[in-house]
Structure formats: C-alpha cells, structure tokens
Amino acid sequence: MPPLAAIERFFERLFERPTARLFRTRLQPVQLQRRIERVMESDRLAASDRTLVPNRFAVHLHPSDLEAFEDMEQSLAAELADGALLFAREHHYTLVDRPRVELVGDESVERSDIRVVARFADPISGRAGLGDGPGGSAADAARGGTGDPIATMVFAVPQPAIPRARLRIHDPSGGTRIQGIGAGLTIGRAADNDVVLRDERVSRHHGRIAGRRGTLVYSDLGSTNGTEVNGQRVSDVVLGAGDRIRMGETTLEVEVDEAPA
C-alpha cells in the first residue's frame, strides 16, 4: 500500500469510524463509492506501460446498515460499479473487465463501518452462482476459506448489451466516412483490417475496438506513433459518445445510438 494511502486510512480509523458509531449516522452511497475508489488506489499494480486496478469488489457492511439500502437494492450495486468504471477512466487506469460490485451483509463488520475486499478477475461467462468462476466469488472469499457461511445479501450487477455505435472517420485529405463498429473492429494501414486508413503515420495494425461487458474499449496494438483519445495518450480506454480517437493525421469520432444493440 502506498504510504499516502496508509496515512489516510490511519486518520480514517482514528476519526471517521468512532464518530459514525457514536452518532449512528446512516451510511450514504457516496461513502461506499469513495471507499471503493480508495481501494482501487491502494491495490493498483504498475505494469510497463499501464496501471492496472481491481475490477471485483465486495463491499462488507453490518446487516443493519445494508438493510437501510433496501429501497435501492436493485440499482445501488450497478451504480457503484459504474462509478468505479468512471473513476478508472478519469485516472487513465486499465481494467481487465467491467467492474462488478457485491454488497455483503457481514456480522463481523461494526455498525457504520465499511470494508471493501477487492481482486482482479478475468471476464466471467455463464456465471450462475456465487461459487462459479475462477477463484470463486467475493462472498466466498468473505468466508475466509473455512466453509462456514455468513449472512449475506448479494445484488448482482446487470450485464448491459454493447451499445450500437459507429465511427465517423475524418481522413487527412478532408474526406469523411462512416463505419459501423458492431461487436468490434481493427484499425490500421494493412488491408486485412476492418478499417483501412491511408495515413503514413498509422501503423499497419494500429488499434482495436472490442466490446467488453457493455462497453466499447479501444486498445492500441503497440503502434509506432501511438494513439490519443480526446488529446490524451492512451493504451486502453473505455470509449463513450463523442470521444475523438487520433492516430497519425486521422481522427475517428465515436457516435453512439441511444438504444443498445
């Protein structure tokens, strides 16, 4: 854990938690979001050209605190996952998959306290239960490997469809054309790409756009001159409506329909 994060957690334990327990203040969704963001910061991993952050989060709350969120149980986990995605994008962090959040009622957590268990996980296909997938679920980890169950309430994050989108391609010559993205495509000078660019500053296989858990993700394929999205140099980034991908002298603007494909 970075020294600054450790110091922050020390003062948090010293002031925030005793005060919350003393006055029995109700936890707010923004407090859960901030705790997830702190864990993303403290557990991040530095690679040679990117910074990886966890994408699976189990938010442990005392059962009475969890019960207070009953009226928003269908949306809170999804909103927390969306917030984690936005935080990673704003800080140019890399996620191996769209974030997922589980809310866990845990008697070992004190009232008004929050404990977040984070991990890195590849995409899970065909997940049917808590114990499915490599390494099991975050709720399984909460059992501490003993096999003894704990009282849990888990809200599954919805699996949205990939948005229907297209690229408006502005060539160096001034021409403009439209290319549908579908489930994904490759971009470069070579003829075997889905989008072939006549731009000498573009690599033969420059980049790829692929669908990932309800989002479109751009990945640079080790191009010589690199890629910018909205003026920032990127290697992997989640794309949204209006984003402008710059490679060489070519600009590709992302247009997204309101209804998913």
Structural account:
- With 261 residues, the chain is α+β, with helices and mostly antiparallel strands.
- The protein has helices at 3-23, 29-42, 63-67, 76-90, 138-142; strands at residues 45-46, 51-52, 56-61, 100-105, 115-119, 163-170, 176-180, 184-188, 195-196, 207-212, 215-220, 227-229, 232-234, 236-239, 244-247, 250-260.
- It has a 6-stranded antiparallel beta sheet, with no helix packed on it. It has a 5-stranded mixed beta sheet with strand order 9-8-10-11-14, with no helix packed on it.
- A hairpin with a 2-residue loop joins strand 10 (207-212) and strand 11 (215-220).
- The longest helix is centred in the first third of the chain and has 21 residues, at 3-23.
Considering DSSP H and I runs of 4 or more, what fraction of the residues is helical? 10-25%
| Element pattern in H and E | HHEEEHHEEHEEEEEEEEEEE
Low-pLDDT segments? 13-23, 126-157
Q: How many H/I helical runs?
A: 5
Keywords:
five-stranded mixed beta sheet, 23% helix, six-stranded antiparallel beta sheet, alpha+beta, elongated, 261 residues
